[in-house]
């Protein structure tokens, strides 16, 4: 079987598993485990609290302890409400593209990795290649934390990591971090004709959102800035709000979600602390003057650090040379698990097949020439490890 057909077949199998983040990914993980086992390679799983999802870590070949991690996430975003022309979980090849949910983000990279298992073994490498495949990246880079916790306990210490998110096979050295918060406002109900006896939770939430928006505007005007990002500053965004029942009852509950997408060197915690201090100093005294039960709670739904790999890092030079590119390694505003790997001490870049413009959309696809370029890149990368 020729190389393209091999990884296309594997990718088609991976797409057929509906690993939307709300679902289990265990069938896909078992498929990967079986493929590794067929080549005599052991793998280890780390499960979520319910046991319905798992990360996979495997070490292939190599005589030394240090090596390189090839990393990808196994979950995909929902197709609900999207107008697909084909079955999103049945891969279709047409006009030089392979269509299917996850084809681009990011089962294409995982398929290329799996298709290279025998190549890695045959290369008789001085250092190993590690596969790190996670769950629940799409809902806040959740699963990879457990994988990295387990990796810290192992005697092996990989020296570098390539995250195969879609970058059109360009080297990405930095991305923004993200802090995702939910605010729950507790007020006091009363008839709308007796506003002095109630605490309007919707109004308090609206004032908090307005303050968040003012912080966002100040950062947009004053920075800090990094022109390699687009937009070149930290952003704040409120996306969901729920509160109230009927118009003649003062609402006693309201909640909203907001996120901070921060430049790697701009602390999201400091930004959040400013917002939290506003609610404590300006809103809560007024609310509790009416009802001691009134309050404002914050919950963290997800967070991940930014990635910021130096231009002088050896991994960037190696990847750029292997890709035969003179383009300056880029920075992107979307997030990946790369920040977690860098925080764990691994030199990290993001580089994978497909365009981020196709990710999460109906009729998601990856171009076949992108898969081929990724396959060639991994072949030369593996060859460079001797």
Overview of the molecule:
The chain is built from ten helices and 16 strands. It is of the alpha/beta class. The protein has two domains: 3-175 and 306-383, Zn peptidases (Aminopeptidase, 3-Layer(aba) Sandwich), CATH 3.40.630.10; 177-304, 2-Layer Sandwich (Alpha-Beta Plaits), CATH 3.30.70. The two termini are 27 Å apart.
Walk me through the topology.
Blueprint lengths: L2 H14 L9 H13 L4 E5 L6 E7 L7 E6 L18 E3 L2 E3 L3 H13 L1 H6 L6 E6 L9 H8 L8 E4 L8 E4 L1 E10 L14 H22 L12 E9 L9 E10 L5 H23 L4 E10 L2 E2 L5 H10 L6 E3 L5 H6 L3 E4 L14 E3 H16 L3
Parallel strand pairs: 3-6, 3-7, 7-15, 8-14
Antiparallel strand pairs: 1-2, 2-6, 4-5, 5-16, 8-13, 9-11, 9-12, 10-11
Features of the shown structure:
386 residues; alpha/beta; Aminopeptidase; Alpha-Beta Plaits; 2 domains; six-stranded mixed beta sheet; four-stranded antiparallel beta sheet
* Overall spatial form: elongated
The helicity comes to: 25-40%
Which percent range describes the beta-strand content? Answer: 15-25%
Helices and strands, in N-to-C order?
Answer: HHEEEEEHHEHEEEHEEHEEHEHEEH
Structural Rg: 24 Å
Task: Summarize this entry quickly.
The chain is of the alpha/beta class.
């Amino acid at each position: 079987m020729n190389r393209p057909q091999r990884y296309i077949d594997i990718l088609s199998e991976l797409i057929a598993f509906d690993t939307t983040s709300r679902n289990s990914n265990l069938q896909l993980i078992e498929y990967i485990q079986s493929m590794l086992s067929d080549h005599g390679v052991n793998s280890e799983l780390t499960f979520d609290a319910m046991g319905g999802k798992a990360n996979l870590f495997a070490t292939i070949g190599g005589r030394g302890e240090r090596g390189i991690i090839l990393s990808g996430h196994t979950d995909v975003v929902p197709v609900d409400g999207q107008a697909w022309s084909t079955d999103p979980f049945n891969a279709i090849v047409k006009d030089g593209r392979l269509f299917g949910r996850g084809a681009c983000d990011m089962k294409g990279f995982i398929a290329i990795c799996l298709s290279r298992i025998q190549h890695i073994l045959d290369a008789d490498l001085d250092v190993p290649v590690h596969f790190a495949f996670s769950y629940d990246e799409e809902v806040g880079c959740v699963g990879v934390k457990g994988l990295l916790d387990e990796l810290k306990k192992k005697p092996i210490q990989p020296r570098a990591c390539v995250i195969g998110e879609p970058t059109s096979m360009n080297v990405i050295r930095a991305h923004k971090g993200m802090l995702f918060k939910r605010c729950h406002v507790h007020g006091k109900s009363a008839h709308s004709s007796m506003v002095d006896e109630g605490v309007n939770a919707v109004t308090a939430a609206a004032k908090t959102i307005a303050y968040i928006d003012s912080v966002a505007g100040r950062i947009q005007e004053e920075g800090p800035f990094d022109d390699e990002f687009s937009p070149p500053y930290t952003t704040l965004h409120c996306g969901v709000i729920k509160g109230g029942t009927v118009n003649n009852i003062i609402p006693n509950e309201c909640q909203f979600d907001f996120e901070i997408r921060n430049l790697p060197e701009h602390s999201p915690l400091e930004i959040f602390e400013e917002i939290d201090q506003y609610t404590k100093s300006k809103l809560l005294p007024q609310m509790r003057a009416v009802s001691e039960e009134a309050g404002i709670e914050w919950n963290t739904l997800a967070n991940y650090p930014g990635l910021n790999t130096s231009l002088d890092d050896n991994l960037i030079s190696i990847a750029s040379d292997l890709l035969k590119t003179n383009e300056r390694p880029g920075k992107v505003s979307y997030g990946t698990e790369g920040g977690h790997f860098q925080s764990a001490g691994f030199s990290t870049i993001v580089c994978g097949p497909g365009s981020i413009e196709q990710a999460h959309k109906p009729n998601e696809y990856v171009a076949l020439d992108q898969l081929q370029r990724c396959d060639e890149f991994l072949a030369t990368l593996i060859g460079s490890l001797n």
